[in-house]
Amino acid sequence: MNRRLAAATTAVSAALAATMCVPSPARAADAPIIDIGIAEGAIVNGPIVFRPTVADGADITAIHINAVAGTFGDLSQGDYAAPWELHWDPLNFGDQDVTLSLIAVDSAGNWTETDPVTVYVDRWGPTYRFENYPAEPGWGGWYVSVRQPLRISATDRAGLNRVELLQNGRLVRTVDLGNKTAGKVALALDPATKNGVVTLTIRLVDRFGNVTSNDFTATVDITPPTGVFRPSGTLLRGTFTAWPYDLHDNVYVRSMASYLDDHKGGGATDRSPLSVRVNSRAVKDGKHTLSFELTDLAGNTGVVRRTVYIDNTVPSIAVTKAPKNKAKLTKKVTLKAKASDKYGVAKVQLLVNGKVVATDVKAGYQFTLNPKKYGKKFTVQMRAYDKAGNVRSSAKRTYRR
Question: What share of the chain is helix, strand, coil (3-state, %, to 5)?
């Protein structure tokens, strides 16, 4: 407690002690002070002057300002003569709610306290936090890019006037916040910034001129990451895994995204090893764009787009030549099948008792079946694969020998 406050508090305490027989201060309707002179919820930045409304003919020899915040109280300020003009300096308070009441002392030493009014003292600059920086834990330093603005959220109960970004002491960006109590801003670096080390200053000013300013040393990286991706084919089906077969970056790739067309069927990950499952059934069969995105610690994103064809339709297959179901076979027989698909048939297989015994990759699919290789009773089936990997089987036929 400073000397001024201690002396004033002692004086008021002595005056109150002299009237120990007086009941606790009243707040009656006919109290000598009708209105304290400052509004509930007012915001105070520095010394202020306010004039209480005093009842006509009231016996008042002194008015003391009782300012309380938490367990701390300040009784050191007030006035001792009419016309009552109270000068209050909240120098003993920081950014906090302060309860103000007035204590009126009459010529007999009796005192009366008004109902309290809560005001907010704003003596400090705004508070803020980064939405997208600094870099990931485990990687020293702070990496920034001209392609990714610094995004911050700021608050100040008195009102945010503006946010500024300086590079190496030079102002490069100002965002006016119109004295709002909260706001989000995006601060882009100077577009001419090159790779290297830079000192960045974030400066926020509230409507009273209180300033918050912080300097950061950052590494500028404007080079997007690059990669070679899988799957490499252009004909895809089902749910497949997209991943970087090879990647390069100045610092570190922190995340990957992959999707079809306008962000369909895919997603993003920041877990290593980087891979994303893409559901091709989110789009119709046909021509589409498959995108791969890599984002580094500075926020640079490298994108690779590839034209692909989605095929989730199974091929058709028909047996064109074969003994009838349940026929008896005594010698080798020829089996033939016809298969088709919009994007091409890769192969047709012959299965006996569920096992592949022959494969043909040319249209006019033909097989020779030797019944002597199998039991007295066995099943035969054809199976077609298209070039995307979809499969369809013909109905099973049972033969005996």
Answer: 5, 55, 40
> How do 301-310 and 235-236 pair as beta strands?
parallel
Strand, coil or helix: what is 9? Answer: helix
Instruction: Give the pLDDT of residue 246.
Output: 94
* Domains of the chain and any CATH numbers: 3-121 (2.60.40.10), 127-220 (2.60.40.10), 226-310 (2.60.40.10), 316-400 (2.60.40.10)
CB 60 within 8 A of CB 32: yes
Q: pLDDT for 20-52, tens place per residue?
A: 333 344 444 457 999 999 999 999 999 999 999
Instruction: Render pLDDT for 50-100 as a digit per residue (tens, 0 to 9).
Output: 999 999 999 999 999 999 999 999 999 999 999 999 999 999 998 999 999
CA 31 vs CA 54, 107, 228, 239: distances in Å: 9, 15, 83, 80
As to burial, measured by CB atoms within 10 angstroms (0-12 exposed, 13-18 middle, 19+ buried), residue 191 is: exposed
